[in-house]
Design a protein that fits this description.
With 367 residues, the protein is an alpha/beta fold. Helix content is 49%, strand content 14%. Helix 1 packs across helix 16 (352-366) and helix 4 runs parallel beside helix 5. The chain is globular, with a radius of gyration of 21 Å.
C-alpha cells in the first residue's frame, strides 16, 4: 500500500526468484514489484493514506481492494502470504484469510510499541511469523507471545557514496563553499499539500538570513502531478536519497526518510502537520514520547521535532539555522545518529527470503 513497501516487495521477489525461478507471485504492488515479476491485480499508486480522514475518503477504494485480495487468496490458495507494512489494511486481510490455514508472514511489523498496542492481539491470533526491522522488536514481540525474527533494516546498508552520474551533485558543484539543505515534504498527497508550502516558506526565511544557502526539493515520483516552480537557489529532484546525500541538513516530514537521513548521518529537523481531528486521534493512540524514528530508537530527543501548531516556518528556520551556526551541536547530532545507525547494522540477521522459504516448507507440511 505504500511506495516503500513496493520497493521492499520488489527486492524480496527478486531474491526469491533467484533461488526459486519457478516461483509464481501475485499480489497488490507497484512498479518495482511488477518489474520483479509479480502479477499485480491492483496498483498502489493512490493507496497511500495517513490519518482517519484519508481512510474515510478512500474507504470505497480500500474495500474494493480487500474484496479483490480475498478473491485471489481463495482462488490461488498460495503456499504463503507475505504482508508488507500497511497495517490498517493488512491486519484486516490477515483476519479474513486466517481460516485458509496458509502461513502468514508479516514484514515490517506494525509499530505497536509506539501506538495502537491492541493490534498485538490480532498479530498473535492471525500472523504466524513477524519479520521485524528493528533489533529491539524481537524481544518485544516475543514477550507478547509472537514469533519474531530480525531480518535487518532495508535502509541499514545504504551508504553516503553518491551515484557517479549524479546530475544533482554536479549542479551543486557550480556553487562551491555553500551550505545545502534538503527539503523532503513526504510521499503522501496530504503531506505534500501541507508541508511543501511550509518548507518553502522556511527556506525563504533562511535565505533572507544566509543568502548563499542552497536548497534541494525532493518530490516523490508518485506526486509528479503536483506542479512546482522553484527559484534558482532551489534544485528540484525526484531522488530523495540522493538529495539527503548531497545535503548538509535535512528538513523532513516524519516518516521513513528520517531513518534514511540517520543512516546517511545527515542532521535533520523533523516536522509534521495533519488535520486537527487526526492530531487529536494521534494523541489518543500514541504511546511513544516521540514521533520520529531516530528519537524513538535513541529513546531521547537527538533531533528536533516540530508538530502541528509548533510547525511554523519561523520555528523550522530557527532550528535549522542553529545547526548551521553551531558546529558543536551539528557534530553532537551526527554522533548520536551514527550510534542509532550502528545498532541497526551490528545485530545478527536472518535473511527475509530464508523466512519466506521456511513458510513455504511449513505449507508443504500442512498439506
Amino acid at each position: 500500500g505504500e511506495p516503500s513497501g513496493d520497493i521492499h516487495g520488489g527486492a524480496l521477489v527478486q531474491r526469491l526468484k533467484a533461488q526459486h525461478p519457478e516461483m509464481q507471485c501475485v499480489g497488490c504492488g507497484g512498479d518495482h514489484m511488477i518489474t520483479a515479476g509479480v502479477r499485480c491485480f491492483a496498483h498502489i499508486k493512490k493507496l497511500a493514506v495517513m490519518g482517519f480522514i484519508d481512510i474515510i475518503m478512500r474507504l470505497p477504494q480500500l474495500m474494493c481492494l480487500l474484496i479483490q485480495s480475498l478473491y485471489h487468496a481463495h482462488r490461488h490458495r498460495p503456499c504463503a502470504i507475505v504482508l508488507i507494512d500497511y497495517p490498517g489494511f493488512n491486519l484486516l486481510f490477515a483476519r479474513c484469510v486466517k481460516h485458509l490455514n496458509i502461513p502468514i508472514l508479516y514484514y515490517i511489523a506494525p509499530k505497536v510499541w509506539a501506538s495502537r498496542p491492541r493490534r498485538i492481539q490480532t498479530l498473535k491470533r492471525c500472523v504466524d511469523h513477524l519479520a521485524v526491522i528493528f533489533p529491539f522488536e524481537v524481544q518485544f514481540f516475543q514477550d507478547q507471545g509472537c514469533t519474531a525474527t530480525y531480518v535487518g533494516n532495508p535502509l541499514s546498508e545504504i551508504t553516503g557514496t553518491p551515484a557517479t552520474d549524479s546530475t544533482l551533485r554536479e549542479r551543486l558543484k557550480a556553487h562551491p563553499g555553500t551550505k545545502t539543505i534538503a527539503l523532503l515534504p513526504g510521499s503522501r498527497r496530504s503531506e505534500w499539500q501541507r508541508l511543501y508550502p511550509l518548507m518553502m516558506e522556511s527556506a525563504q526565511q533562511l535565505r533572507a538570513h544566509t543568502p548563499n544557502l542552497r536548497f534541494i526539493l525532493a518530490q516523490h515520483p508518485n506526486l509528479s502531478d503536483f506542479k512546482v516552480k522553484t527559484p534558482d537557489h532551489v534544485l528540484h529532484t525526484h531522488d530523495a536519497r540522493e538529495a539527503i546525500r548531497c545535503a548538509d541538513l535535512v528538513l523532513v516530514a516524519s516518516g521513513t526518510a528520517t531513518l534514511e537521513a540517520t543512516v546517511l548521518n545527515t542532521p535533520m529537523v523533523v516536522t509534521y502537520q495533519t488535520s486537527r481531528f487526526n492530531a487529536w486521534l494521534a494523541k489518543k493512540i500514541l504511546i511513544s514520547k516521540y514521533v520520529s524514528l531516530p528519537n524513538i530508537l535513541a529513546h531521547q530527543a537527538i533531533v528536533p521535532e516540530y508538530l502541528q501548531s509548533d510547525a511554523t516556518a519561523s520555528q523550522l528556520a530557527q532550528a535549522l539555522q542553529h545547526l548551521l551556526d553551531d558546529p558543536q551541536a551539528y557534530a553532537a547530532t551526527q554522533k548520536a545518529l551514527k550510534h542509532v545507525a550502528t545498532q541497526l547494522k551490528d545485530h545478527p540477521i536472518t535473511p527475509l527470503e530464508t523466512l519466506v522459504t521456511q513458510c513455504l516448507s511449513a505449507r508443504t507440511q500442512i498439506i
